[in-house]
Amino acid sequence: MRFFKTWWQEGAVALALAVLAAGLAGIFRVIAQFQDLGASMPEFIGLLLMAGILYVTGVFFAERFQLGMTALAIILGGAVLFRAELLFAKTTPSDDVYRYQWDGRAQRAGLNPYVVSPNEEKLEGLQNPEHPEPPGEETPTIYPPLAELVYRQIETVPSYKRVSTIFDLASVGALLLLLAAMKQPLHRVLAYAWNPAILISFAMSGHFDSLAIVTFVGALFFLLKKRAGPAMAALALAFLSKFFPVLLLPTFLRRLRLAYAGLFVFLVTTFYVPFLGAGIHLFDGARNYARDWLNNATLFHALFLVTGSSKAGAEWLAALILLAVSLYLAKKRAAPLWSSLILTGGVPLVSPTAYPWYFTWGIAFLCFYPNAAWLLMSVTCVLGYTPAISEGAGEPFKNSLLMLSLEYGPVYLWLTYHCWAAIKKKLGVASMGSETAASDA
User: Fold this and answer.
1) What angle, 0 to 180 degrees and rounded to 10, lies between the N-to-C axes of helices 228-239 and 209-224?
2) Residue 438: its pLDDT value, please?
3) Pure H helices in 247-368
4) What is the C-alpha separation between 41 and 353, in angstroms, rounded?
5) Angle at 215 between CA 212 and CA 221, to 5 degrees
6) 40 — pLDDT class (breaks 50, 70, 90)
7) What backbone torsions phi and psi does residue 136 show, to the nearest 5 degrees?
8) Is the Cβ–Cβ distance between 384 and 355 less than 8 Å?
9) What is the mean pLDDT of residues 254-283?
């Protein structure tokens, strides 16, 4: 009887997942057929929020019920199908991929991307005629050297999307290995594999944050397996793809010998060597980005007021907060995956710029800690695309207070409740301990 009940439950949940997968596939098929996303941005965001509801329902099933191989096959099959659909999208909500393309062309022309910028004279031939004004056209590149070296190998926009998706699917595989190593259900990979923000950012938009994520997850896998060299090497490669993984360096060094910091420094230096011709201008792009970009921020505005309306001061304060949290987690020997969720999820909250794809950095860790607030954030972050609606209507590109409230408000409320409940529980335990001690006395 018990076997029959378990078999019936697994079959029912697998069927429910199949229905959810069919719904998501239908939504992504509609999205992929948009001809002009700028003119269809409200519909695009509405469909993504609808996909988010189906996604959260799927996470609930994967977390709540015992699932079999059929359900896992549906999860993995759906992951591949959704990405295949979005690869053929005719438009994209972000044009960063055109900047990747320009950087790649500049390198193939023998130019240093840390010195030149797209709006310079005599470089018109490097532009893509379909999109002659890539993002940040007035500044050198902001991307780390591993990402730049990969850009050099790719020529067309569809190829960028395909390579980004390959890294993305590799992250699914790495998460399966990590889940197995931690003896957790493999079905939890759904929290990453079906996430709408992940799918839109990589398969549809071609963002190369997927390279940083797969190397970062790989580093955590090697750390768990106590393979110090590969763990530190993978962390360095993640940092050389996007800068955010450096926040986990204290956590890694807390579990490895300090000597492995030398391996990290060696690899970072080696990858920067081909670009050292830029000299003191090597980080001009990063400085310009910090100085000029401000979009979809929340807590950063509070830091801005605290520092007397100084953007640079607020950025330094945000960096100090992140460093303090990083060192605290390392000192307390917090679980590396938990530290990763806290830090990668926290960066966009205190950053002056929090594009929707920045929130993809922490989604992988929802497979291990499906915290309700962070799950909600991974869905509502698509509201970060709303400024494109006003831009499409001929108005300035700006954030709406209403949209920011809808995007972040429920998340902060949930986080506040979660913290309050944790503190109350801690105080309750302390109170019980005191009563026990008094009774013993």
Assistant:
1) 160
2) 46
3) 249-255, 260-272, 284-292, 299-306, 311-331, 336-350
4) 20
5) 140
6) confident
7) 60, 40
8) yes
9) 93
For 170-189, the three-class secondary structure string (H helix, E strand, C coil) is HHHHHHHHHHHHCCCCHHHH
pLDDT of residue 441: 40
Q: Which carries the bigger pLDDT value, residue 394 or residue 20?
A: 20
Mean confidence (pLDDT) of the chain: 90
Is 135 in contact with 234 (CB distance < 8 Å)?
A: no
Give the CA radius of gyration of the chain: 23
Task: Give 357's DSSP letter.
Answer: G
Residue pLDDT, tens place only, 96-115:
999 999 999 999 999 999 99
What is the per-residue pLDDT across 179-208, written as a single tens digit (0 to 9) for each?
999 999 999 999 999 999 999 999 999 999
Return contacts of 179-185, CB within 8 angstroms, 24+ apart.
179/367, 179/368, 181/221, 181/224, 181/225, 182/224, 182/368, 184/367, 184/368, 185/62, 185/66, 185/67
CA angle, 209 then 213 then 216, to 5°: 135
Q: Calculate the CA 20 to chain-centre distance.
A: 23
Q: Which helix (H) or strand (E) holds 237?
A: helix 228-239
Instruction: Tell me how crowded residue 325 is: count the other CB atoms within 10 A of its CB.
Output: 16
Mark 405-425 as b/e (b = at least 16 C-beta within 10 Å): eebbeebeebbeeeeeeeeee
How many other CB atoms are found less than 10 A from the CB of residue 114?
26
Reading the block at residue 212, the tokens are 């940083």
For 87, phi and psi rounded to 5 degrees? -60, -30
Q: Model-level pTM greater than 0.85? A: yes
